[in-house]
Amino acid sequence: MKRPPVRRLVALLAVMTLAFGAIFVRLTVLQVSQAASFRDRAWAQRVRTVQLPAARGQILDRGGEPLAISLEARDVYADPRYVQDPWATATELAPLLDRPVAELAGLLTRGTTFVYLARQVDRDRAERIEGLGLPGIGFLETSRRYYPAGTLAAQVLGFVGIDGEGLSGLEAGFEDLLAGVPGERTQELGPHGQPIVGGVDVERIPVAGSALVTTIDRDFQYQAEQALADAVAANGASGGTVIVMDPNTGDILAMASYPWFDPNDFEEAERGTYRNRAVTDAFEPGSTNKVITATAAVDRRAIALEQELSVPWQMRVGEFTIHDAHPHPTMPMTLGDIIAESSNIGTVMVARRLGESAMASYLSRFGLGRPTGIEFPGESSGILPPLYEWTDTSLATIAYGQGIAATPLQMTAVYATIANDGRWVQPRLVLGTRSADGTFEPAPSSPTRRAVSAETARTVTRMLAHAVNDGTGTNATIPGYEIAGKTGTARIPFPDRPGYYEGQYIASFIGFLPASDPQIVIAAILDRPATDYGGVAAAPLFQRIARYAITRLSIEPGRPLRPPPTAESQP
Amino acid sequence: MSLPAERVARPGTPEPSRGAGALRPPEGAEGAKRPPRSAAVPATPATTARRRRKHHVGFAILATVIVGSMVLAIVSLNALLAQQSFRIDETERQIDALATEQLELVHEQARLSAPGRIADWARRNGMRLPDDIRSLHTFGELQVAPAGAADTSAQEGSE
């Protein structure tokens, strides 16, 4: 019998030992030292987490009518690796995506694994594209913001970017509330993207955003905008602003700035139109600011109502000469006359009796120089120089509304304070929120503070009513109703250097009605009207909006007020 | 001195046999004579085998029935679960469709009720806002009950 070849067996044993040893070593490396790394790579390969977008909350008017809603939409993307015939695919997609064939073909031949072909495509079109069954074309669920009333309250509402994030207006200011909380779904997928049965499948359900219920009255807003657009056209103005406010609650019923834009196509609009100028832009209020001077004088008893001042038509203040709007002989005027005729010189004489400190104090009491606190992004504080920066002309010019700046909203709040018996009320744009289950959560009432006594406010109201009945504001009158208000014709300062534009004005009228029991405050402001004066350009705009307010809000006429003492009525 | 253990054959016990040989009687033994059929005789290895075969068949049938029933039950349960799953899927699809429809209706309602659209329609049809506001004043002490207020005069009269 032949003996086995021992050497060969030993050699074979050695080879096998080495081979198994190598395998053992490699296994140890793979399963011990590199195990965590490979486990992570495997997990990343087969586990996909997809974000589930949360439905964005609606923006509603005070009656629950939708001002902004979100519609279902889809993003269309391509994975060029799987597109079989880019040119044919582009030809089929071009009419549905409204993009040139060559542009789409360029995207479909890119050396990448993901490229957007179109964003926020509406559901119908997306389904038609899906029906084509084109390889390499995919869809992502998303939503599209839609503003059903187009340009209505555009600057107040703002708009939403392509990624669904609020970029302007209330959309940006209440982003956290409206956006909700997105969910996500984590799934373990096979090589072809199919879910692995029994694998990881975890879903975090998205939480829809709450609806924002604004104080805006949609129909009122529309009428105010129509009136503003017509007034801008009729007076050859470059723009304008309207604010309608409830003086008792601070609710803003309408807020419009012309020119406006369509938030559905905000990218096409001029960027300057995005601003809600009623809140973000300050202007020199001009004669509408005289109401603060008059209120301070009455409250401090700096001048008796019956007292007559001898008012010339011009006056030297420091290095400058100031004058009234029209030349007139030196004439006796009471405080009521000064407000009714909007005399700059008379106002300066009253302010000098008050003094700088008192004047600054009352400007502050009425909220000038600081934001009103309305919940709107980018609110301006206006410009109110601190007392130590006042020059020898500051008291005089500030008394009649030049040399300071306020937003239209700040000035509306000033008149609302007079209308509200001397209590300043913080304006507000939000009435409350409505959660996804329909529960309404009202916003807290607007903070208020006493600015002047009720008696002072009522006295000033009589002066303002006199200014409309027999002064510069006669174009604002409505038969049967007594309106209290004040005109303003303010010069426009250069933006980059001292001085004012020649022959360019901001015409304004701010007032409330009925004077005896104010229900509504309206500010009507026109930029650079060809008709110049507040009483000519802005008062009719106020009147048109006030007429609508009477019918819309069923405002009763009220009782006529006793006019303030005037020079003519004095014995 | 010890010896390795050996199996000791018991006297009178047959040597254990294996396979078919085990059923065969030993040659030359008395037991090889066939007993009369009618007589109650102890079971032979052949009858034992037949009985065993019958038992096997019975067991197989029983097992088949039991397993079959279990399989049927499992399949039925699965079918039931699948049916419920399909119903849930169908209901979810219906919910999605209704949610989409509701959103489309909200969209349509919002579009149709937009003030600009209504104002345009009204203008095309010759409607306009009133030019002036007229207030009607009543005189005297006449108190008018608001609309919808119950008329309690009859009740007062009857009491």
Could you characterize what this model shows?
The complex is a heterodimer of chains A (571) and B (159). Chain A has 571 residues and is α+β, with helices and mostly antiparallel strands. Helix content of chain A is 35%, strand content 22%. Chain A contains 18 helices and 21 strands. Chain A has helices at residues 6-33, 35-46, 86-97, 101-108, 123-131, 154-157, 169-173, 175-179, 218-235, 277-280, 290-299, 335-341, 344-354, 356-365, 394-399, 408-419, 454-470, 534-553; strands at 47-52, 59-60, 66-78, 115-122, 137-146, 183-188, 201-204, 211-214, 239-245, 252-258, 309-311, 314-317, 320-323, 331-333, 423-425, 430-434, 440-442, 448-450, 484-493, 500-513, 520-527. In chain A, strands 2, 3, 4, 5, 8, 16 and 17 form a 7-stranded mixed β-sheet that branches. In chain A, strands 10-9-21-20-19 form a 5-stranded antiparallel β-sheet, sandwiched between helices. In chain A, strands 1-6-7 form a 3-stranded antiparallel β-sheet. In chain A, a hairpin with a 5-residue loop joins strand 2 (59-60) and strand 3 (66-78). In chain A, helix 3 crosses helix 4 (101-108) and helix 11 crosses helix 13 (344-354). The N and C termini of chain A lie far apart (157 Å). Chain B has 159 residues and is mainly alpha-helical. Chain B is 53% helix and 0% strand. Chain B contains 3 helices and no strands. Chain B has helices at 45-112, 115-124, 153-158. Chain B is rod-shaped. The model of chain B is unreliable at 1-32 and 146-159 (pLDDT under 50).
